[in-house]
Amino acid sequence: MPLVSAMVSLMPTSPQPRATRSSSAPPSSAPLFSTPLSSTARSTLTRKQDRAVADRGELRAVLDAGLFCHLALVSGGSPLCVPTGYGRDGDTLYLHGSTGSGNVRTAAGGVDICVTVTILDGIVYARSLNNHTMNYRSAVVHGAARAVTEETERDRALRVISDHLAPGSWDYARRPDAKELAGVAVLALDLTEASVKVRGGDPAEQPADLDRDDVWAGVIDVRTVFDPPRAASYVPADLPVPPHIADRTRP
């Protein structure tokens, strides 16, 4: 599935929320955990613990706001981290890749993997270089993925992934045929073991630097902006942009 063209704009404005998911998506059939995020040895923050968020709703919000994730695992004795598409259904994260990928086959074999989603919200300029930082929202999920082979779940998972990246396209574009489906692997990862870390606001200055009125400090907010759609060269000039695409570029 091709990535949607997007522009990252450094502008002094508040981060904007993502466009709403397409209403054509079916309601989630997956159960939602009602408990807060539970700490494990892997999910407990060891640094900047004040930035930890134990609210499971915040985990879902970060995952829903991201457009792609990074999948990390050990393959062939070497660490590997690759970007890939995903989608969330309840408290299950679905990822997809090529059936010909050895890394995907490794991940489907029950080994421990780690999936991360990070949203950059701002560049923080302090009066000292040591206190320069970023405002962000991040989620880290640990666990063993399972291969999704049952036809009904696999079909739903592919729709979830499609609706996450390109909402509305599942009911508009041609769906994968048997040959195409044979080349796609789908993984499911429960959101049982996860952590969320959030940083926002002004720089954290050293007391001595607060009196340095000759050095500017502040934040440049960062947001993802969808540019107007650009038709492919082979699309007829009189074919209108469908609403589910056109609406995504509007404020």
From TrEMBL:
It comes from the Bacteria. Residues 12-40 have a biased composition (Low complexity). InterPro entries: Pyridox_Oxase-rel, Split_barrel_FMN-bd. Pfam families: Pyridox_ox_2. SUPFAM superfamilies: FMN-binding split barrel. Residues 1-49 are annotated as: Disordered. PANTHER family: 5-NITROIMIDAZOLE ANTIBIOTICS RESISTANCE PROTEIN, NIMA-FAMILY-RELATED PROTEIN-RELATED, FLAVIN-NUCLEOTIDE-BINDING PROTEIN. This is Pyridoxamine 5'-phosphate oxidase family protein. The lineage of its organism: Bacteria, Bacillati, Actinomycetota, Actinomycetes, Pseudonocardiales.
